[in-house]
Amino acid sequence: MIWESSYWKDDLIKSRKKLDQWARINLNEQSLIAIEKTLMLGFYSIRKLIEAKKISTNIEAANIEVVEYPSVKNVTRMNWHKIQFLYDLEKPKQTGIKLINICNWFIHSYVFLIHQNEKGGLEGVYFNSDKNRNNKLFYISLKDIRLTFNYIGTNYPYESSMTFNKETMDYDVMSK
User: Fold this and answer.
1) Cα angle vertex 20, ends 61, 29, to 5°?
2) 11/14 Cα distance (integer angstroms)
3) What is the pLDDT of residue 115?
4) Which residues on neighbouring strands pair with residue 97, listed in sequence order?
5) What is the C-alpha separation between 66 and 121, in angstroms, rounded?
6) What's the pTM value of the predicted model, to 2 decimals?
């Protein structure tokens, strides 16, 4: 359980700044690995902050904008990186996904591909999880990742209420 959230949140702000830098440079293999690690740890941190009730309830319930693409072929360990053959990239659909789901799908990613801009910098990420790999591919823009890291990293609830839940035998927490 996270007791003091500022250390986790400060790291999210630092990660957001790194992502800003990676958007402006031509990425090499070393920077691609660093981006993957930064995103995995960032979304893991967000999940832990959600589970510890260290962010406002309205943020926890928020939908994050992503683009989804339908699957057209079976995704395996041998072909996961060939998204142009596995998903219909000509049929993008804007949708909102709960933040906790995005965290889980990054952590359990089966497809994880960094999309680069015309200058070779970070533009966004294609991803899905082991469980949804044969249904959809998701894309999240760098802009939305940055906004999410910044929003979570600067969110300090000022009021909380707890109600005992007899079904779970624990407290439900609401934070503002």
Assistant:
1) 105
2) 5
3) 98
4) 64
5) 19
6) 0.92
